[in-house]
Design a protein that fits this description.
By secondary structure, the protein is mainly alpha-helical. The protein is built from 10 helices and no strands. 74% of the residues lie in helices and 0% in strands. Helix 5 runs parallel beside helix 8. The longest helix has 28 residues. It is elongated, with a radius of gyration of 21 Å. The N terminus is likely disordered.
């Protein structure tokens, strides 16, 4: 028997049922950045990849800026789980520091996570306080883990006692500088060289 037109509520429910899961959209966005760079990540192109219109993507995310921030948050969730697993191993704290640095730094030129980081922070110059607070929380997750590592090493006597918060702030600034050079492909900068510099800094500053 023919039926009348769907109500707005049922139409909305239908859209929600057929829309791909949020994680699928964000993972696809990250894959696009990894394969083609940010320039190729458009709402229309992403919509085609996940079977949605650009209008529906805007309905769910509100703007491309919000899509990029949520993609970065999703990426950091994955990396955060990997970081927590690495730092919970029963190995010397100095070895955990190396694992932390290895995860923090980009893999090399056009690393998708770092490419996205730089774009999100650049766009945040005109963002509201809520957006900036969400971005800051991503930074603070790394900071807290580094502070905890420094405190653990000092308590075990395997690292020199330092002002953990101050040292972590300076070390992350060093990593950010090297990381930016790596991801933009600055001539003469490669990952093995950067890792060597950072390890030297940590050894000179922290080993008893």
């Amino acid at each position: 028997m023919p039926t009348g037109p769907a109500s707005p509520d049922s139409a909305g429910a239908s859209r929600r049922r057929v829309a791909p899961p949020r994680e699928q959209v964000l993972a696809t966005a990250m894959e696009t950045i990894a394969e083609h760079g940010l320039a190729r990540l458009t709402m229309a192109g992403l919509g085609r990849e996940v079977g949605m219109s650009s209008g529906h993507l805007l309905y769910y995310f509100g703007s491309k800026d919000e899509l990029l921030l949520q993609t970065l948050q999703w990426s950091e969730e994955q990396l955060g789980a990997e970081r927590r697993a690495a730092l919970s191993r029963t190995v010397p704290v100095r070895e955990k520091l190396d694992a932390f640095v290895d995860l923090y730094l980009p893999d090399g030129h056009r690393d998708p996570r770092w490419t996205l980081w730089l774009e999100v922070w650049n766009r945040s110059q005109s963002a509201d306080e809520d957006v900036r607070a969400r971005q800051l929380e991503l930074e603070l997750a790394w900071h807290r883990d580094l502070v905890a590592l420094l405190a653990e090493g000092a308590s075990r006597g395997t690292l020199r006692a330092v002002d953990a918060d101050r040292f972590a702030t300076r070390t992350r600034a060093l990593l950010d500088g090297f990381g930016t050079n790596l991801v933009v492909g600055l001539p003469g900068t490669d990952r093995p060289m950067v890792l060597s510099h950072v390890r030297e800094h940590l050894d000179e500053s922290l080993l008893p």
